[in-house]
Amino acid sequence: MVLSYPLLGGDLSVGGEYSFTNRNTNYAIIPNTLSDNVRDRIKEGMSSAFVIYSRDFGKLNMESGLRYENVDFKYYDDGKYMAEQSKNYGNWFPSLSLSMPFGNVQMQLSYAADIDRSNYWVLRSGVQYSNHYTYETGNPFLVSEISRDISYDLAYKWLTFNLTYEHVSDPIYQTVEMYKDNATIGLMRMINGKSYNNVSSMLTLQPTFGIWHPVLSAMVEKQWFKLETRDGHYLNKPVAEFKFNNTFDTKWAMFSVMMTYITKGYEENHYIYKPLFNTDVSIYKSFLKDCLTFQLYVNDVFGTNDSHIIGKYGKLKETIFDEFSTSKISLTVRYKFNVTRSKYKGTGAGQSQKDRM
User: Fold this and answer.
1) What is the pTM of this model?
2) Burial 271-282, CB ≥16 within 10 A → b, else e
3) Where residue 344 falls among pLDDT bands split at 50, 70, 90?
4) Which domains does the chain have, with CATH numbers?
5) pLDDT over threshold 60, residue 49
């Protein structure tokens, strides 16, 4: 529910939301020599309330907000309430945004806090058999990951620039451990790590030349991620990503060529040890006032989208070497029946909870 009304020359919005989730996981493995049977249950109630106020002070636009979320998480194993895995906690998420034009340049400075809750499958306790050397499991002890960002944005005609500083608390990432002291089997699961800082910068150029709409973007990201591994404690090497997308909007169809290049570097505890290059091609055509659409899509045209990643998990290390990339082609046909605009003006209550299912 959201209510809005004018206040002191600005606009005030207040609202709230409540959702309840009851999730059961029951399965038996026959024979159960590989992993144990599972019978667990999760009950979670989440309530939230927020207030947002926005106002113009001359050319300066200010928007501030505050959101509170309370989560009551109850975990049951084989019908028994598990107090250690269960938790009840509340979090405050403030936000502030200041934007103002300087001639033809639009600038914005903002602060925001956000939360990333694990999906319910990640919170399970059961063990899944993947292959002879790898098992997977969940982690009901996980706490939510919270990020606090300070961002600066600049826009000038077809040029945009972003610089973001991020502090991440209780980051959630994948690790691998020995399964029941068996050195030949790795057990994969998600854990909470130490807080770390991250800085990213992105420049995007998006001009138009007749039917040609190119988009060129360059992004550089550096983290200060600490983890005790066999190769050292700090996983800090920056990673860069370059994209060059080209769209030709003709009277016959819309043709697109999308290219991506990623350098060596770290993404949390995963190291890209060989650069990646990928090219996709798309042809899009619509008929009957966009009710009927066709899209021909070719993924990885040159078969170069290989994976060369090293996962660092403390004393263990996993090397992913995949040079068997193949091109894929798909044709998608869509027809929309009785297209009408929705009169619903809500905000999608409980959508984030549904996504976690």
Assistant:
1) 0.82
2) bbeeebebbbbb
3) very low
4) 1-193 (2.40.170.20), 198-343 (no CATH)
5) yes
